Amino acid sequence: MTELTDTADRHAAFARVGSAYYPVLVAVFTALVIISNVTATKGVAFGPIITDGGFIVFPLTYVIGDVLSEVYGFRAARRAIFTGFAMNALAALAFWITIYLPAADFYVNQEHFENVVGAYTQLIVAGLAGFLVGQTLNAWTMVRIKERTLEKHLWARLIGSTFVGQFGDTLVFCAIAAGAIGITSFADFVVYAALGWLYKTAIEVLVLPVTYRVIAVIKRREPTYA
């Protein structure tokens, strides 16, 4: 009874965002999101396995998201999510403006550039929708579990938030992006979404030791982490 009371009286610890580590994590997080959206404009097939080029770095955004949620809390993670959202929207705007700028005489790739930007725009919409849903679910789940377990069972927070966040992200993203990369049948869509979710979740589980290490280092060096 005493142990339960002590746990109830304690609160989950989080650091303040005004340190050197938080902006670096947000910058890496935002860059990974933009890179993954650009590489996702290409549909990729490994035999029957259908995916897109975003699989290369996108799972790492959830690793950084987990670090932000665990160390700085839901509000700080949400701020990073909104920053990534805004920078992706800015990238899409810049690409579209570039389409309509007069091309130099020696530039022969206007049509190809338009095709890539057109696909990127649909993927931006898909990515931003999935990104907001998935990352918000990921951060919320991470923090909710931490409020119950405090500093214990980090593995449960990381894996639980990954399953929930990646499911929401992948479902929303694939529903919007499938047409942009040429997926037209329901069977291909199911394969695309299911394998995307399983792959991204598996990658996060595999890099769990790295995530553990990064979180431990930042907690130890972050002076505001209580």
Characterization of the model:
- This protein is mostly helical and 226 residues long.
- The chain has a single domain, classed as Arp2/3 complex 21 kDa subunit ARPC3, CATH 1.10.1760.20.
- The chain is built from 8 helices and 2 strands, in the order ααββαααααα.
- A two-stranded antiparallel ribbon has the order 1-2.
- Strand 1 and strand 2 form a beta hairpin.
- Helix 3 runs antiparallel to helix 4 and helix 5 packs antiparallel against helix 6.
- The longest helix has 40 residues.
- The radius of gyration is 19 Å and the shape is globular.
- The N terminus is likely disordered.
- GO terms for molecular function: transmembrane transporter activity.
- Pfam families: Vut_1.
Helix and strand layout, with pairings?
Layout lengths: L1 H8 L11 H19 L3 E4 L2 E4 L5 H15 L1 H27 L9 H40 L4 H24 L8 H21 L1 H14 L5
Antiparallel strand pairs: 1-2
Helix pairs in contact: 2-3, 2-4, 3-4, 3-5, 3-7, 3-8, 4-5, 5-6, 6-7
Number of domains: 1
Distance between the termini: 25 Å
- The CATH C-level name is Mainly Alpha
Low-confidence stretches: 1-9
Number of strands: 2
Which range best describes the helical content: under 10%, 10-25%, 25-40%, 40-55%, 55-70% or over 70%?
over 70%
Strand content: under 5%
Overall 3D form: globular
Main sheet properties: 2 strands, antiparallel
- What's the pLDDT, averaged over the residues? 81
Strand order of the largest sheet: 1-2
CATH architecture: Orthogonal Bundle
Structural class: mainly alpha
The CATH topology, please?
Answer: Arp2/3 complex 21 kDa subunit ARPC3
* Number of helices, where a helix is a run of at least 4 consecutive DSSP H or I residues: 8
As a whole number of angstroms, the C-alpha radius of gyration is 19 Å
H/E series: HHEEHHHHHH
